[in-house]
Amino acid sequence: MTLLAPLAPAVAAELVRKGRAVIVDVREPDEIARESIPGALAAPLSALETANLAAAAGREVIFTCRSGARTGAHCERLAARAPGPAHILEGGLMAWKAAGLPIRTDARAPLELMRQVQIAAGGLILLGAALGTFLHPAGWTLSAFVGAGLLTAGVTGFCGMARLLAVLPWNRRTT
C-alpha cells in the first residue's frame, strides 16, 4: 500500500476517534504489556508477516513503536503489510504520551526484556571494570566476557543473557 506522511499524535488521535484510522503497535509483546495506546492492534515486527491486520481493513493504518525509530527504519515493510493507506506515528508512543493522550499502563508488568539485558550487561561491565581497577586485573575478564556476549548477540541474533533473564520469576506470566 501507500506510505503517507508521518502524523503528529494529535492528528492520529483525531483520526482514530472518528473511526477513520487504527493504530498498529509494532513493539514486542513484553513492551506492549507494560505500556500501550488503548485500542491499538499488536503486530510485532518480529512476526509482522503473519500478523492479522484484517481489523484495519477500510481504514488508514498508523504504525507506532516506542520512539518512531523502528517504524521509520521499517516504513516500506510496514506499508506493504497495511490493508490501506499507511502512516507512521511521529515520535511514537513517547510523543503520544508527551501530547497528553491516553495510555494504558501496567506497572506490574516487568521491564521490557531488552531493557533488562541492557541493565544487567551494563552493571556487569561496570562491576568487571571496578574489580579490574581496584582489586585484581583478572576482574577485567568479566567485562570482556559480557562484551563478547553482546557482540555474539548482535552478530547471530541469539542473546544468552535475554534467554536467562526470560526464565527468571519476575518475567514469568501469571494468569
Query: Level of helix content?
Result: 40-55%
- CATH-assigned homologous superfamily of the largest domain: Rhodanese-like domain
Main sheet: strands, sense, barrel: 4 strands, parallel
| First and last CA, distance | 38 Å
CATH architecture assignment name of the largest domain: 3-Layer(aba) Sandwich
Name the helix and strand elements from N-terminus to C-terminus, one letter apiece: HEHEEEHHEHEHHH
Query: What is the CATH class name of the largest domain?
Result: Alpha Beta
Number of helical elements = 8
At the third CATH level, what is the topology name of the largest domain? Oxidized Rhodanese, domain 1
**Strand content of the residues, in percent?**
5-15%
Q: Which blocks of ≥5 consecutive residues have pLDDT under 50? A: none
